[in-house]
Amino acid sequence: MLTGLSAGLCWALETVILALALSLLPAFSSPEALFLLPLVSTFMHDAFSAIFMFIINLIKGNFKNFSGIIRHKNFKWLVLASIIGGPIGMTGYVLAVNFMGSSVGAVASAIYPAIGTLLAFTFLKEKVNIYRWIFLILTLLGVFGLSFSPDLNVKNYFLGLLGAFMCAFGWGIEAVILAKCFKETNAKNEQILFLRQTSSALTYGLIIIPIIGGYDFTFSLIKSENLTFFIYLFTAAVFASVSYLFYYKAISKLGASKAMALNITYTAWAVLFTVILTKDLSILNPLSIICSLVVVVCGILSATDFKALSKK
User: Fold this and answer.
1) Residue 64, class by beta-carbon neighbours within 10 Å (0-12 exposed, 13-18 middle, 19+ buried)?
2) Which of 62, 134, 146, 203 could form an S-S bond across to 57 if both were Cys, CB 3.0 to 4.6 Å?
3) What pTM was computed for the model?
């Protein structure tokens, strides 16, 4: 339980630091730059995280048996989960944070436990009680209600909402696949996270960025010599890596639904850290607070099996 809560705490710090990093960049007015920024930023973020995890695995000597993971029958599923959770899920998350702010972006993307429940019902044929569907609908209504919150620093609500749903489906699918893989492989969390972040960075660097013509934009960011931006981005990647390690451990010990329910507490922590670190009090209005609580509480309840808990 503490591991799952720690994952949420670290992800909240990642969220606020990532938003601070993006705020250091110049204001881009062209549609092309607005489209490229989240993708390029996510590519750099996951590449930094992959480098950090490479160092961690190297120090721990985890590469000695890495070939066994590659030969395992679930290797292709781990790569698939990495691509879905990274290029799709993380890009959506950066879109949400960039266009809705760290507080609202974090809350909006917190619908992924509800989406994970829906996906588990559809593809894994897990039984989902009627009350969980009700909480799912309430969660989505809470996210929609954020658009009516006054005085929020939201650049583009609809692009942010699109990102939130990309994130929710990406992370929901990733959690369901990983929950299955953790039961059938003895790979360490550090190894799986290195595989995830490396697969995500390579997918961006070798496929997505060339297709969208984003290398010129990427090099322009590097040449900008905005050292503070890269320090913040690397720091966010480190907190993201630590959060994922806690999250993976929670999935392997508690299962996908409970791990997602605990990890979703990052929404509350993100609001707290935003107020403390950025002095942004715009989130502290009655409607946004109520909608945030609805998303967090109903998102957790939609991913909770009360019958299983009562038996224990």
Assistant:
1) exposed
2) 62
3) 0.82
